[in-house]
Design a protein that fits this description.
This protein is α/β, with parallel strands linked by helices. Helix content is 42%, strand content 16%. Helix 1 packs across helix 12 and helix 7 crosses helix 9. The chain binds glyceraldehyde-3-phosphate. Glyceraldehyde-3-phosphate (G3H) binds next to strand 8. The site of glyceraldehyde-3-phosphate has 14 residues, from strand 8.
Amino acid sequence: MRVPIIAGNWKMHKTVAESVDFVNQVKDQLPPANELETALAGPTLSLVSMHNAAIGSPLKIAAENCYYQNEGAYTGETSPLALYQAGIHHVILGHSERRRYFHETDEIINKKIKAALAAGLCPIVCCDDTMGRRVAGSQVHWVVNRILLDAQGLSADDICRVTFAYEPNWAIGTGQSADPSQAAEGCYLIRQTISYMYNRDVADNVRILYGGSVTTDNIHQLMNNRDIDGVLVGGASLDPQTFLQLVNH
Ligand SMILES: O=C[C@H](O)COP(=O)(O)O
């Protein structure tokens, strides 16, 4: 059985003090991790303090990015091994903002996924999509190729530690979520691709999230779908009470 996940992605928001204050406000009100997994991805500078504040609670702390080497002359990058050793559980990789603003290719993302897994982290791998592709009918080809390239060379054991997130660009930060059927189709395409690459059992074990303008108003409808195992939430995860409402949807 796949345990659903509610994951917040704060992006480049919150100071260290604000991050810790948020964790302290929510940590005692979360369900057990075996019923519903809760995770918060914060800015790199906040991660250790967030982890320390969350110790003893079910909340898992996630990085928003990491590099594909554990150490070396890579000024400004973050080591996946150092993240793992600091108690960080997940790392978001391949977010559309990383692909668009920082020119991350599928090849780089594939290297990062392998390095994160080897270090002990559980990647949350994002797959974007555009309305243009959807109108042109090429979204199936696009999504399938992202998964084939990003997950290339991963073992079945590896892929079961990866969570995927279907995040259409037109829905990210716009207030206009994909409708539940579009969201479900994106997640279904990812699962079918994993089934093709491995087998049905493996695909049935992998968790696939939807992300893009998830709110307290639409979360129930989005998650009430057998192909959607949870949500990756940006803007609506920035307020602790709203995050708790999402968790208790
Ligand atoms: O990672 C989260 C997504 O980019 C969604 O962001 P949003 O909920 O602000 O649309």
